[in-house]
Design goal:
Length: about 375
């Protein structure tokens, strides 16, 4: 998240046109190792032209974003942020994204009716939090459901909380304190085939990851110099009760094909926020947003800890500044959940979640999704 939200739709369109204009590459180039800079992003359409959107919003009663999708007991549940018009106009640190509660979506299958459930958790019921309920995730273990969420604590520092429920749709009861040793935003919990759960998290700029470079919080934004590696997302294995980290968080390295960590200045490929992990054919796929270049990129690793080798683009820029997604398998098909700003006509902080099929090629690469039709 950034103080450049004034880009709004005009900026996104201009940026996309710039990318399109500067690259001489097909948007359907889906080979492994496709560089972000080699994928031409189609300019998002104007909101007045809904026929040009590849998918329509899953719900239109409320604004939703950052969709974390899971299949629990054969059904798809989506845990989104619940965007609201906060009335905040200053935007230095993503202040406009001032969400106050969560609501869960569910559906039996993609394309079928979507249920918008009642409030699952509200800010007022989280004892340690002061504001900004950002992108959540969820997990299930032994019939119990866990909601993980970032929020600013009373000192204005992002941490990650856990809340529990007997139902996947809540209501969830928040733990009295945030997860010990947690910081920054965008938790994503991955369950491996051996039953271990891992949380990935972190986000630069508004997500404050750049303030933790020393290992503790420093209230000053410090970014890597041009020859320094980018900030990494973090990983920690979860405790058996899924309420705490079982180990101190570690860096998740993202490297290029030559084994060199991506640099902080490699803005087309480096991690910004919105980490997500799925497993395909025994390999771990880390996907994430590149933030100010608006891609959802992916990298492949051999273990949950990585290192992950950069491979290419999952989703080209969407309408709106942020891009945030999840990838889930349901009934033998893979789906990409993502958001754009179709319903609000391009307002960055008023987003709507969508879904589309995601194809893995035979060589394990992912076919790039362009969310807009020509
Ligand atoms: O929704 C608030 C923030 O915007 C999320 O935490 C980021 O990933 C971005 O989508």
């Amino acid at each position: 998240m950034t103080n450049q939200h004034q880009f709004l739709i005009a900026g996104v369109i201009a940026g996309s046109l710039f990318i399109t204009g500067c690259q001489d590459k097909s948007p359907t180039d889906t080979t492994a190792e496709t560089a972000a800079s080699s994928v031409a992003a189609a300019p998002p359409p104007t909101p007045a032209d809904p026929a040009l959107f590849l998918n329509q919003p899953l719900v239109s009663e409320i604004y939703t974003a950052d969709p974390s999708a899971h299949v629990f007991n054969g059904k798809i549940y989506v845990y989104p942020s619940h965007d609201i018009e906060s009335g905040i106009t200053t935007d230095g640190e993503g202040d406009k994204f001032d969400m106050k509660d969560y609501r869960v979506l569910s559906m039996d299958s993609l394309g079928g009716p979507v249920t918008l459930h009642d409030e699952a958790l509200k800010l007022a019921d989280v004892p340690w939090a002061s504001r900004q309920l950002w992108a959540p995730d969820a997990a299930e273990k032994d019939g119990k459901f866990f909601l993980y969420f970032p929020a600013k604590n009373k000192d204005g520092i992002f941490q990650i909380g856990a809340a529990t429920s007997d139902s996947p749709t809540g209501p969830f009861k928040a733990e009295p304190e945030p997860i010990k040793g947690s910081f920054s935003v965008d938790p994503a919990v991955f369950k491996d085939d051996d039953g271990a759960y891992y949380m990935y998290f972190g986000g630069i700029w508004g997500g404050q990851l750049q303030r933790w470079a020393t290992g503790s919080y420093v209230a000053e934004d410090k970014y890597p110099a041009s020859n320094e590696p980018a900030y990494s997302p973090k990983i920690a294995r979860m405790s058996d009760d899924l309420l705490q980290f079982a180990e101190p968080p570690k860096d998740v390295q993202i490297i290029d094909g030559g084994g060199v960590p991506l640099l902080g200045t490699d803005t087309n490929r480096r991690f910004f926020e919105a980490a997500w992990v799925h497993k395909f054919n025994g390999k771990y796929y880390l996907s994430y947003s590149t933030g100010d270049t608006h891609y959802i990129a992916y990298a492949i690793g051999e273990t949950p800890y990585g290192p992950f080798t950069y491979k290419g683009i999952v989703l080209t820029p969407v309408m709106g500044w942020t891009s945030h997604h999840s990838i889930v398998k349901h009934n033998d098909k893979w789906y990409l959940f993502y958001h754009d700003t179709q319903l609000s006509g391009g307002q960055d902080h008023l987003r709507n979640v969508k879904a589309t099929e995601l194809i893995h090629n035979d060589d394990g690469s992912i076919q790039t999704v362009d969310a807009y039709l020509d």
